[in-house]
Fold these 2 entries.
Entry 1:
Amino acid sequence: MPNVQELNLNYNAILPELCVIGAGLAIMMYDAFAPKGPRRLAGWIALAGLAGATYSVWRLWGLETAPSFNGMLLTDPLRLTFSIVFLLVAAVSVMFSMQMLDDERLPAGEYFTLLMFGTVGMLLMGGAGDLAMLFLGLETLSITTYVLAGFRRGDLRSNESALKYFILGSFSTGFLLYGMALTYGATKTTNLAGIQEAIATGALTSPGLLTVGAALMLVGFCFKIATAPFHFWAPDVYQGAPTPVTAFMAAGPKAAAFAAMLRIFVMTFPADGGDLSRATTGVLVIVAIMSMIVGNVAAIRQTDIKRMLAYSSIAHAGYALLGVVAGDWTSVMFYLLTYAVMNLGAFGVVSLLARVGDEKTDIEDFAGIGFKSFGLAMLLTVFLLSLGGIPLTAGFMGKLVIFKQCWQAGHTTLVIVAALNSAVSLYYYLRPVVVMFFREREEEFVPPRVSTMAEVALTLALFGVIYLGVFPGRLLSELDRLAKRTPAAAQLNSQR
Amino acid sequence: MLAEYLPTLLFLIVATGIGIALILIGNFLGPKRPSPEKLSPYECGFNAFEDARMQFDVRYYLIAILFIVFDLEIAFVYPWALVFRELGVFGLIEMGVFLALLFIGFIYVWKKGALEWE
């Protein structure tokens, strides 16, 4: 057993997580001791914790890559950049949720506590240097999201969503855990740097065991990011959950699962044409193609906008897989950042237009509101066009960067399929726009109430979409610089 | 090599033999006066009042969850007690943090009224 001095207990390295945990606990105590009535402060405590966490991430930014806590946690550019995505998603979700919780008189204390702990899970997944840590983060995240999905306790759809998510999520976790166990059996360690070293030096108990382990982990991750053969849960879950929760689920946990996937399949497993990398790349190419086609084709036929966005999210997971296939983490990170901004924006507008209790989520419900609720309609249009990948929006830049990387890595067919899919997807993204602006409305329409926090969140999302779409240069060059500095995990072994 | 297992084989034969012999002796010599009560399968305790598939009060689950929380706490404290000397003050503080977190949860449950039965 290593003694305490050798464990490398670097509390600076977990300061972001500590801030968010602190906020979660503070909300719990506030919820327990505050007098009766709505918990208006809970959201603000959550935002304060997230701001503190963002500051702590920023403090870690320039530091050298280093493991801490006996190799459990790895502070490297992948962790830091993804942390920013997670914190942004959490903050925007908090802002959207405040109005919903207020309108529907749901218990805000519980809601924000769960959201905070879920964010901690995401942060830990991004920084995991060990399979055990990764699994712990994933479970923390999953359990809170299961509860959040069913947060509207009186609503049957919300209950259905939570139950489906719970059962299928636990099932997929089983795959992941079994894969991890087999990988451990093959490499005799759960530490990612150790696994990499074992593969590089050929110190495997059985190469077949590692392949099966990798395959099972791949299945587990594909479930979590909702890619095609494993996507069946996504539409029902996304439709049934309260819309701000859906916004969070589609942007946050998806990005977290991608971060974990990149850690294992890009940064730990060797990239150079071995049996393992050829097998995983082959599977990922097929999964990506299926995901894009299934997602886009099924989205065309949807009449419910939340369901349509759910299928679009399946297609987007397919696009993001292109970067995993190419073995380039920065492009995936950038893509997920752009996806998070436009997706949060789109679901945010939908949550406002759908009214209290998510009553009106049919695309037809939005008929002719374009000029009656001009601001919201324009915002939804911008976010949908961005999801479709129109130039000058974040969605276009994200796709451009990831397609370029994939093309350079030599997967030309995959890029062509993705580009064709992207063109098809424009059809269904434009449909709500057409319905909003060019259709007569028969019923009366009262513009929905938009709280200040929702306005701030929408402004943030809009700013993100425009900024990432028009001026991505600075961010991309910073990412490039970080990527060059990312050392292989094996080099860290000497420091461990 | 196989000869070493001879005692085991003998043991098996004797044990099986005695078992069979006892059952046979009982069958041949024992008096047989069967009654419906005697022939029914043996079951201890009361007769069942109702179907076992009934609805449980949701509070049972709450109690079960609370039990698990504190059970896990104890399960974590035992190994710590074993290596207490090696970990020293650091271990004490870490355990304090762990217990404090659990305690916060406990306060929350208490204040929310989850421990009130009625």
Entry 2:
Amino acid sequence: MKLITAVIKPFKLDEVKEALKAAGVAGITVTEVQGFGRQSGHTEVYRGAEYTVDFVPKVKIEILADDAQIDPIIDAIVASARTEKIGDGKIWITDVGAVQRIRTGEKGPDAI
Amino acid sequence: MDFALDSGNTAWVLMSTALVLFMTPGLAFFYGGMVRGKNVLAMLMQNIFAMGLLAILWAFLVFSLAFGDSGNAGFIGNLDYIFLKDVGIAGSPEEFFSFLTIPFILFCAFQMTFAIITPALITGATADRLKFAGYAVFIGLWLVLVYGPVAHMVFAGGWLADMGALDFAGGAVVHINAGAAALAVVLVIGARKGHPGEHMPPHNLPFTVLGTGILWFGWAGFNAGSALAADGIASQALINTILAPAAAMLGWLLVERFKSGHATTLGAASGAVAGMVAITPCAGFVGGMAPIYIGFIAGVVCYLALHIKAFFKFDDSLDVIAVHLVGGLLGSILLGFWADPAINAVVTNPGLFITDGGTELLVDQAVASGVTLVYSFVVSFLLAKVISATIGLRVTPEQEDVGLDLALHAETAYSN
């Protein structure tokens, strides 16, 4: 079992969600986050005074998946979140030791 | 004294009073949009509270201090009208106001709305750090010690008016007066925590644009109402109140685009307000293209004046000094160039650029502006010092971090 974490552009969230549903994903967790990468911040001007805003708003998506699902999920995210402009985001995958569904007590892949 | 009520004039001043009253909530939104989200209610509160406290003080005492014994060429009025004694539905008992064709009680109400917004203008400079109790005491005493005397000297035939200075709707009484007080108070309370390093962007510029619209709308009553009649002078004042802010907006945006690379929404709003300020003393005295020249100059100069605070290292949070003090001074001085007897017979010394004009009015305007600035600054500074040392005029650093809304008023503007 793996945890897939993707940080994407906020306006791409709907497209990514639809693509994930189409790929058979049963559930995702979404968080509004901010940070910086190669796409640095931006500059704002108020009454002649310039301010640099270092952090860019992004959306973080987390998906629990069985090992066999990983490739189609990653393909779905990359295809739907890509604009080919700087700041499209990243995806990373981490191993998950255990998963349990709270309602039924199911464990392991059955709980995903 | 014979009193002939004119219903047209009375109707216009009734309406103008309501228009000017609406400016204070407009100012609240103009300023409120520019502060951080954790301090927006405190800003709205300071302004709305001014409507509560100052209206009562005006009726109790300050109207009398300002307009008692009018035409005495002096420094202050008297106590003839305290608690609105002899201020009624008939005309003014003052010989000086025998030209009025509106009830004296209406004149009192109209002037009250000016007395309310003037101290409220200060709150932009002191944003994000003023202690509410200290503020309340400050504006109350300021109305008595500063506004009353200055209004008397300029609006009620006191010595500045007697000398020959002109101020149609409050370039000196309202804008130089409030601007100088704002400078004094920020020097006493110091800079916002984190200033100038920390980024403190406006939290809601749509509020600021909304406030600008309300101010402009209300300013029609402020300037055209100051004719105290529904006549040609009021009509001239009204178009000037549209043209000058329009030209000021263009002037501000032009310099801003050139200097910082963008024409901003905040710049359009700020430029328009600078134009409203600058045309205030001139509104019923200038005509033709003069309001456009005055407005354009104000837009450019007030934008450049934004640098004053960085140069002298004081923290005027929302640029009250650049917009109101500099704008008020500009309007008052520029009146000395364009005041025109063909527009208003009150102008006995035409401005320098007008036929048969001279420098006499210019000198009077400079003296009246200087006196207002120095008097307001000195008294405001002492008053702020005394309140700062007793009640306190600034919140604690912890309260400033939490935000004034929660720390002072136990409220938050926006739920998460």
